[in-house]
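Researcher: We're teaching a course module on how sequence relates to structure. For the next exercise, students receive a sequence and then see the predicted structure as tokens, so they can try to spot secondary structure elements on their own. Here is the exercise chain.
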Amino acid sequence: MQKLLTWNILILAIVGLAILSSAGLIDAQKKFGSSYYYLNHQLIYLGLGLAAMFLMSKIDYKIWKKLSLLILFGSLVLMIMVFVPSFGLDLKGASRWINLVGFTFQPSEFLKLGLVIYLAAWFSGRDQRLENWSYGMAPFFLVLSFIAILLALQPDIGTLIVVSMISLGVYFLAGVSLKQFFGIILVLLIAIGGLIFIEPYRFNRIKAYLDPAGDPRGISYQVNQSMIAIGSGGLTGVGFGKSSQKYGLLPEVANDSIFAVAVEEIGLVGGVAIILLFLFLGFNMTQIAKNISDKFGILLVMGINIWIMSQAFINIAAISGLAPLTGIPLPFVSYGGTALISLLAGLGIVINVAKKA
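Model: And here is the predicted structure for the students to work with:
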């Protein structure tokens, strides 16, 4: 199972690099003066990520249980630092990045891994007290609420949705009652719904999803262009490197729209193959979780599984017109150093758990 998982990860990483090398070609030339800017930087990030994965695979995963509170605290400190003028970096009206001595990174990506570790540690030590409000629900709800406030202030509703799904998934797998579980879901839906409706651009994304033809040159532009790209690909695609939508027609071709460019070039067959690679990754991690008896290990593996699967399929659904656009990147494929490094570090932990299975 460990070898299958490792090969699955490497294949996804290679496929992601290949897709990015084509999808980001024109955008990179336009923004940075080099067609291979995205590819060259992503190669560096992949190297760092694989090094992190190798290191994490060698460290006994049980040590993270002891360090879980410290890891979460460090993640939250970094999240707060984005609002400090001397550290935070505003891009496109959002405060999501930190600039330290020339290095720019997104703390919310590290938060996802930190939160998984913390929740797995927290719930694995409270088997008999989850039904108790003081020991089970209240601390979980307070931590999630604080994280939600930080993400709403950035603002980063896409990450908030992923974090919520991670939290709900781990909470459910920990063995809580359905009453508590659905109570948390209701509160989260009300909170996220409120955040959507108080900001016009978020509400407009919902409208664009419900009526893509309503404003084709405005808020519906990205989803319409992505649908054109997907439709143009047909069954087998127009050919690798031959996308027309990446020539300034489709926004965010190297980020959340990258799946549309991939399907345009390699067709429905290629798109389904990418989806199957993600499903196989999720299946591998689920099998690893089934083969271990340690509750912390189970919650840790499944938390990372939920993180990757929810992010992948929210991105694919949104860019295919099956869900509102969220700005969530596609794991392994979209451009982004912090996301790739934290993702591979998390998978390194899963590999270590697999060794103990």
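Model: If you want an answer key for the exercise: Residues 258-290 form the longest helix (33 residues). Strands lie at 88-91, 94-100, 103-105.
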